[in-house]
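new request in #modeling-help
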Amino acid sequence: MIELQNVSKVYRSLVPPKPVRAVRRMTLTFEAGEVVGIAGPNGAGKSTLINLMLGFLNPSAGSVTIDGQPPRRFVERRGIAYVPELVAIPPWWRVTGALARYAVLSGVPRSDREERVEKAIAALGLEEHRGKRVKQLSKGNRQRLGIAQALLSDADVVVFDEPTHGLDPVWTDRFRHLVRDLRRPERCVVIASHNLHELERMSDRVAILDHGKLTKVADLQAHVTSEELLHYVLDVESDDVAVADVFPAAQRISEKDASATWAIDGDLDALNAGLRALLERGATVRGFSPRRSRLESAFLEAVGES
Amino acid sequence: MNRVLLAYAPHMLRDYLMTRGGAMAVVAAVFVLPLVLTLAQATEVPPPEVTHSQGVGLLLALTPFLALIASYGLIGQDFRLGFFRPLFAKPISVPLYYAMIFCCAALTFWIVQALSLLALAAFQINAWEPAAALEMSFRFALLGGLTFAMSRVTRLDWLYAFLIYQLAAPLRTLLPAEETIRGFLINIVFPPTHVFTLSPTARTEGRFSALVGASGPEWASIAWLIGYITVCLVIGLCTVRRLELASVQ
């Protein structure tokens, strides 16, 4: 659906400093029916990538296409549901008025407009703010309004740039449900975020960028392979010798009463065998949780611990 | 024109009237009030032809101010404030959107001028003069068009447009087109404001605009104006189409 072929983007200016290479020879495809995350440290090129997808920026080299068309042509014909990182809506507009205007611009038929606006207001919990001007809204509510305007259309491409920026934990969680409801076979959802935990829970794949390069695409749908190194925290009631025997590389992190917490690394088979052996030696496992999520591990591996 | 944009036109006009129409009306009131107050306090009512002439002159003088308020940052502001992001992710043509905003500006200009006419009429000043109205429209489109052409590239669009507009006539006098290449270029590049200059005989004949002569409209001047205004508007729309919409770094 969205194809980036060898895309580079260089920001040039007439005066120093030197040109900035924001995106370097990136090739990536976003398919219909999937939710793809874009992660990366600050300045990795996430926002530039999103701007290239929307046709707000032109690539310096390579090509970006959506359904085989240049992005601007696609957007001007079919539109994209887009939530920018900083939601900028004229501050003198009222919530309902703003959504009504965006509904018109999204091409929602007149007969459906009111219903669509009401649905978006309800979905984002903006009922009590409907009469307020945008300038009277808190940052979180403005972000919700930004998400609501994107949901008005029935676009096949949905792009969120840091969508939970400013949202409280309740609305961050609800946003996840909104994304789940947006899933359709013909729709491609792209989410750029710093929040790896959030991306891991919503995305099928996550493209990890660093210094403008695509360093890794983490497939979160795939099962854990036997070779994959996993990082876990083990909270166990056992003697230290037993733990050290079973997991020679384990590092003791802390202890409380009779139990101790250990950091252990290993592949799936080694971890299973180790836990089994510990239980056979009479240990009581009080907790066993990932020290880093899968995406976090992939991210750190891709961009380096620095 | 894009159907979605046509459906959006009433919202656009209302927003435009709310944001800039108010400011334009205030400036118009500042121009109209002194004349009205002077006449109200006068012991002797001046003859209608005098008040007519004063009224028409006032509306003509008001035009550049209204044009600048109506057209400054018309394109650039959306980009500076980030409003363009949710807007241009919608299925609309960006140049058409701004062409429509320019139409809203022109419409608002005429609404404010009409209100000024009505306000003057309420005090028995008939300021309606078709030739002057034609000139006002061209003056508005010329200065507004110049500002529009520069709106995407500089936030000082109004200042540069005003300077170019004001300097056109003195530069033409200093460097006549037929004498030097520089003069020739100035004649082409700078707006044809000289076509508005009334001859002393025209003034004595009671004419209000050089665009309409004794034998009818001055078609050559009108064609020059239309051409220049069209080029300005096309440049403005081309900058929107050709320049990148975002600047992220």
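bot summary: Chain B has a mean pLDDT of 90.
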